[in-house]
Structure to design on (881 residues):
């Protein structure tokens, strides 16, 4: 037998070891290299000086130099990743105040009295923490691998060659090549630019894109006026640029703001629900624990023993494995969704994905094939280039081909379709200048020289083309004022739209200079239309029907004309389409829009900024909204949606803003993701139901009986062991089968329902607990050790078995549990039955029971399971969820 001094020294060494590990885990790793003071106002320095200060050249860095800088400056991320994350994850398992107080009390009891009980308590707490750590660590590793599949990348020069690297690997001194749709990976100085326009709304709040060009500015120039600088968190709208990265990560302007404000993603609805649930349990637990402690002290029981008993009850009442269960459920859901080509970037979005009841999408590539094709060119008299000899229509094709074949900005499907439809010999045309397409002008203009003449050719959205035209060219190649022709031109476009064709306008202008700007897009001559078509996807009608059967209402948001949108929506079989145009939307107040969006399922001729307004109105109307977008102008709507969804081929800014990325732009993939999200949500709720029913009932019963018995019904270590064993099967809940009725419609976290569930099944559990107490005391005349053993057996076995009942709304005979849940439940029951007959029994305060005890307890458990099954059917027939 060890002396008390020996025991104390042993535990002192253990505590010192734990302290050392804690300190090691909290020691910060090498700090990133601080910012060069001379570059604090880099916009005021000449480009050659900035290159010198960043030790770079216009040819970029070498791969070796970039690798060295990455280790010096750290990852280009606002959330730095540390190798200590595993240690921190382990320590996080013990950060609960109740757990920390329990550990402190157990250590205190080692020095004051019995070391055995305290050791058992510490061991059980440690095992429980390790189980949670093992689960969360595996989930974290799985998620990291999935996120690597959808990394946003930057194009940089390394060893003089352009290559794509993850944004996190961009370092100061990198030379970055930018074009439309690209995120800006750090704070940069513009070296060269061509019609560069940048959206800085995320940083400055400026609504309109800002033009950027190289140059030197005064040091005191304000952030919003630094036209030679580019900043992380912003994105390119149009044009191209070559820039040098000056600051990365937390040294950027965006990083400083996020560090000051500690910016975090807004909570999902599921996270808000979990928070409310946590506060609810905390209130119940605190009230109960304080009452029990005060009552035990009043009954003149030892203060430390009463304190430990109250804390152990608090642990039993607290679903401390909930974070691990949620993480495991979400990570498993993410892995299963990845197999179905759905990559989850932000895990809590899975729950929202399952709760989504409105899904907004664009038209191209989602409802349609996404392969834009040219049907024909149409002149101003309505004659088409197909089957009709129209020189003017053929000239529309030629000018459109010149424009599409020579553009160097935003790559798009329309230009590809034009180039593939018909080729022309354009060797006699020399390209002189270009004003790239952007989402404000919605035009692309290129200046050509042919012999001694200069010609600007412009194509784009019909309305935007007509806005810059002053004349129209007739079939006889005569130019007449456009004023008298506008109605006719719009009517012809409407006629084409009603047939499902999208129209682009083509215009030209004679010019007399070798360069031009967007201000020169005036006094143009309208030449004709291009009629484009994008046929609906095969089977899309069935897909939309399935989406609706899942309780998700699809809505289309498109910039195309109302006629085109209605034609497509009718072809895909959306019932009773009700449309609203962007101009109609503009006239509505936010309150009026909130009412209209519920009944509207087609939004046409919508401007980029109106998409976000539609999403916000739908959310305010009480919906969980998903939005699918892949373009530059979709970022704000993706941010606003409860579930931002993009595709792997999307531009950087859309992919970065999204919560979920589809590896294929296919609604069937989306449907599979929705189903998987609902499975994940259902399994997470199962744990909550379990933690708030049988477990809660057992702890509540124990608290009550402790006020009547002359001894504690269970010792603190026995309570913790009970909690550990009942939690073990629930670790496998992520693998459980889910009934179809739980995935057939969107469901949301409902605290009122959970509270009702807890009251009904907690009280049912307590009824049979008190039946057990009565049987042990009045029928079997159990001694304290026999009482604790019998109560331990009944409590763990009944809580384990009732999991199989409350996991489903159906009969336990009709809905089979998952293989791992069943195996874990049976293993827990087996271990529980064996413990009183092993050498551990004496250490834990148990003893072997006579056969009469076992038979009576077995009958109570069986009766409890039958009663739970009956109550379940009554409960669900009266309470809807």
């Amino acid at each position: 037998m060890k002396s008390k001094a020996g025991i104390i020294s042993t535990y002192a060494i253990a505590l010192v070891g734990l302290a050392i590990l804690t300190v090691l885990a909290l020691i910060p790793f090498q700090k990133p290299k601080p910012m060069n003071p001379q570059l604090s106002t880099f916009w005021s320095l000449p480009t050659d000086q900035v290159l010198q200060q960043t030790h770079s050249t216009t040819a970029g860095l070498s791969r070796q130099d970039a690798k060295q800088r990455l280790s010096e400056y750290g990852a280009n991320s606002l959330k730095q990743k540390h190798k200590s994350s595993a240690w921190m994850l382990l320590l996080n398992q013990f950060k609960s105040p109740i757990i920390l107080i329990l550990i402190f009390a157990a250590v205190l009891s080692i020095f004051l009295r019995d070391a055995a009980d305290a050791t058992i308590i510490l061991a059980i707490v440690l095992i429980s923490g390790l189980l949670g750590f093992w689960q969360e660590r595996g989930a974290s590793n799985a998620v990291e691998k999935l996120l690597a599949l959808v990394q946003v990348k930057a194009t940089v020069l390394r060893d003089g060659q352009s290559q794509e690297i993850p944004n996190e690997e961009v370092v100061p001194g990198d030379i970055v090549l930018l074009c439309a749709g690209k995120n800006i990976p750090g704070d940069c100085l513009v070296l060269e630019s061509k019609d560069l326009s940048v959206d800085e709304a995320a940083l400055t709040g400026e609504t309109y894109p800002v033009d950027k060009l190289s140059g030197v500015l005064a040091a005191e120039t304000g952030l919003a006026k630094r036209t030679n600088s580019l900043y992380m968190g912003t994105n390119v709208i149009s044009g191209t640029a070559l820039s040098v990265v000056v600051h990365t990560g937390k040294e950027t302007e965006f990083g400083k703001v996020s560090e000051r404000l500690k910016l975090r993603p807004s909570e999902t609805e599921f996270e808000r629900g979990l928070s409310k649930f946590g506060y609810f349990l905390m209130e119940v637990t605190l009230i109960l624990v304080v009452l029990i402690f005060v009552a035990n002290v009043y009954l003149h029981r030892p203060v430390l023993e009463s304190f430990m008993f109250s804390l152990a009850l608090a642990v039993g009442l607290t679903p401390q494995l909930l974070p691990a269960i949620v993480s495991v459920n979400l990570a498993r859901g993410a892995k299963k969704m990845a197999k179905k080509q759905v990559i989850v970037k932000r895990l809590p979005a899975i729950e929202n994905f399952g709760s989504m009841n409105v899904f907004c999408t664009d038209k191209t590539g989602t409802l349609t094939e996404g392969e834009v094709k040219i049907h024909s060119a149409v002149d101003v008299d309505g004659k088409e280039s197909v089957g009709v000899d129209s020189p003017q229509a053929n000239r529309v094709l030629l000018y459109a081909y010149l424009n599409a074949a020579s553009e160097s900005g935003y790559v798009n499907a329309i230009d590809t379709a034009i180039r593939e439809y018909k080729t022309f010999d354009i060797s006699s045309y020399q390209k002189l200048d270009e004003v790239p397409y952007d989402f404000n002008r919605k035009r692309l203009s290129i200046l050509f020289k042919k012999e001694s003449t200069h010609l600007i050719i412009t194509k784009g959205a019909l309305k935007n083309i007509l806005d810059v035209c002053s004349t129209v060219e007739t079939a006889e190649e005569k130019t007449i004022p456009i004023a008298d022709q506008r109605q006719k031109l719009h009517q012809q476009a409407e006629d084409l739209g009603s047939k499902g064709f999208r129209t682009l306008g083509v215009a030209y202008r004679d010019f007399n200079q070798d360069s031009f700007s967007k201000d020169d897009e005036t006094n143009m001559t309208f030449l004709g239309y291009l009629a484009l078509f994008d046929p609906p996807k095969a089977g899309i009608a069935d897909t939309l029907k399935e989406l609706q059967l899942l309780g998700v209402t699809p809505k289309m948001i498109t910039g195309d004309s109302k006629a085109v949108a209605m034609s497509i929506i009718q072809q895909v079989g959306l019932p009773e389409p009700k449309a609203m145009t962007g101009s109609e939307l503009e006239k509505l107040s936010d309150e009026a829009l909130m009412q209209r969006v519920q009944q509207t399922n087609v939004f046409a001729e919508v401007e980029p900024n109106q998409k976000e307004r539609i999403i916000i109105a739908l959310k305010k109307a009480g919906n969980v909204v998903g939005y699918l977008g892949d373009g530059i102008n979709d970022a704000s709507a993706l941010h606003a949606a409860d579930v931002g969804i993009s595709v792997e081929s999307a531009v950087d800014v859309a992919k970065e803003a999204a919560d979920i990325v589809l590896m294929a732009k296919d609604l069937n993939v989306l449907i599979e993701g929705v189903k998987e999200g609902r499975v994940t949500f259902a399994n997470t709720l199962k744990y909550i139901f379990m933690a708030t029913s049988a477990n809660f009932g057992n702890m509540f019963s124990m608290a009550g009986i402790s006020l009547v018995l002359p001894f504690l019904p269970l010792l603190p270590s026995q309570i913790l062991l009970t909690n550990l064993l009942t939690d073990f099967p629930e670790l496998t809940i992520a693998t459980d089968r889910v009934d179809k009725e739980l995935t057939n419609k969107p469901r949301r976290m409902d605290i009122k329902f959970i509270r009702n569930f807890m009251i009904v099944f907690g009280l049912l559990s307590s009824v049979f607990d008190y039946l057990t107490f009565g049987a042990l005391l009045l029928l079997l005349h159990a001694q304290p050790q026999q009482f604790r053993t019998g109560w331990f057996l009944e409590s763990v076995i009944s809580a384990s078995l009732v999991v199989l009942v409350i996991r489903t709304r159906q009969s336990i005979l009709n809905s089979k549990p998952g293989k791992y849940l069943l195996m874990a439940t049976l293993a827990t029951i087996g271990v529980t039955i064996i413990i009183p007959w092993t050498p551990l029994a004496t250490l834990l305060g148990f003893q072997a029971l006579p056969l009469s005890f076992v038979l009576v307890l077995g009958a109570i458990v069986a009766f409890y399971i039958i009663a739970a099954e009956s109550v379940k059917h009554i409960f669900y027939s009266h309470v809807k969820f």
